[in-house]
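fold-stage: in
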Amino acid sequence: MIKAVAYMRTSSSTNVGEDKDSVPRQRAAIEGYATTAGYTIAESNWFYDPAIKGEDSLDARPGFIAMLARIEANGVKVLIVESA
């Protein structure tokens, strides 16, 4: 299995929360692809930015910045997202 990291983002605060489907939907899509394609994602390699719009700068995305730091530290070369 090839190691990967996963990144999820929810653009609206109205879609953030335990009762919302954004994170479970994204996670299921990412896990499904990873399993089919032969990737493994450790629990510590999941990153999420809630209520961050696509137009927001990278500096405003703490989850994305943490993901980049993890990639730099552990050498993982694959990032999986639900969709571009």
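fold-stage: in (second)
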Amino acid sequence: MTDLTAVSRAEEWQARGTRFSWSPADEAAGPVEIFHVELGDSDAPVLALVHGFPTSSIDWFEVSAQLSARYRVCMLDFPGYGFSDKPRGWGYSLRRDAELLDHYLAEVVGAESVVMVAHDRGDSVALIHSAQAAEQRARVRLEHLVLSNGNIYLPLSNLTDAQRLMLHDPAVLQRLTPELFAAGMGALMFSPPRGADDPEVQALTKTFAHADGIGVLHETIQYLRERSVDEQQWLQARAAAPLA
């Protein structure tokens, strides 16, 4: 039986947010609708929380409310994730997401400077943005950068069997449902493990189901290939450019 409080958790998050249209500068992909949430005083320092794979801004559900007492907390769902659009064949990439992140902070939020906290896949997006900011190619000045999840260092990465299947065999996704995917994450990624009836797991089910998110998992997980080529360069650029 579905827990109504769990469903309302995802619905509450969706109700807190709004959407804006965005197109990449290279024009190789069409416009997408991007979901975002902002909490806190609009005059407070801006704190950007950047989500990972395969989840979305709803990861920050609990912590964002606490941080909003001090910051203007700004979160978005990248294309292919959460409550944003998920068109097939769109061309998902870390670099496009870094471009989107800068657009969001500069044009939608109207920030001149930002404290950024990123997680998992979001670390790579944040590293690209920080390197661009250090070279003054980003419009928003980065005050502080916090990266979580040691897998940003490729030698330490430990892909699960499920991640390898999603990366190499898109056919496996034909047998996957949002419910199964969320339940698997609850069992494997939470400590202690959480069952399918847990509010967070059921909220994940709703975000995966939105706009057929399972259908683009093989495309969105290709960021691992992009990261394997470029991440040492991003890390070196970050190390060589101390924050202002």
